[in-house]
Design a protein that fits this description.
single chain; alpha+beta; Nucleoside Triphosphate Pyrophosphohydrolase; 3 helices
């Protein structure tokens, strides 16, 4: 079985007295009806790149945001079947990191990234475990809530 390693970011920002999370809508992904699929930015770890570097790069590419690394939140592990390459089964590990917003405008991404990301939006961090589409990502949002609650020094006015 092939193995894949990816990394992603849970970007948080303090605005208007509460924490917000940067979510993306992957291009071409929808569930039944008109329901929007919200996800966390993530992607494959490139050769010579650390998972931490990947999370920062993927967030920048998929959201337009510059961030700083705060902490590792955890790993999601699952098996999927590729819709290409003869239906090969893949064991995938995605490492997620808590990232703090530094600068940039959410959604200002390169035109070539539009094949991967339809749009991006800030959602209240407290709402994220109920709004993200994928179970493992909802768990990472819950871990982010726990982290910011336990570490009030992360707050700063914006």
């Amino acid at each position: 079985m092939t193995r894949e390693f990816s990394a992603g970011g849970v970007v948080v920002r303090q605005m208007r007295g509460r924490w917000w999370l940067a979510a993306i809508e992957p291009a071409g992904r929808s569930t039944s009806g008109a329901k929007t699929v919200l996800a966390l930015p993530k992607g494959l770890v490139d050769a010579g790149e650390s998972p931490e570097q990947t999370s920062l790069r993927e967030v920048r590419e998929e959201t337009g945001l510059e961030t700083t690394l705060v902490a590792k939140l955890g790993d999601i592990k699952y098996v999927y079947t590729r819709s290409w390459a003869g239906g090969e089964r893949v064991f995938k590990v995605v490492s997620f990191y808590l990232l703090r917003y530094e600068s940039g405008k959410l959604g200002e991404i390169a035109p070539e990234m539009r094949v991967e990301v339809s749009r991006a939006e800030w959602i209240p961090l407290d709402d994220a475990p109920g709004r993200l589409a994928y179970k493992g990502e909802r768990e990472m949002a819950a871990k982010a809530i726990e982290y910011v609650t336990r570490n009030p020094e992360l707050k700063r006015s914006e």
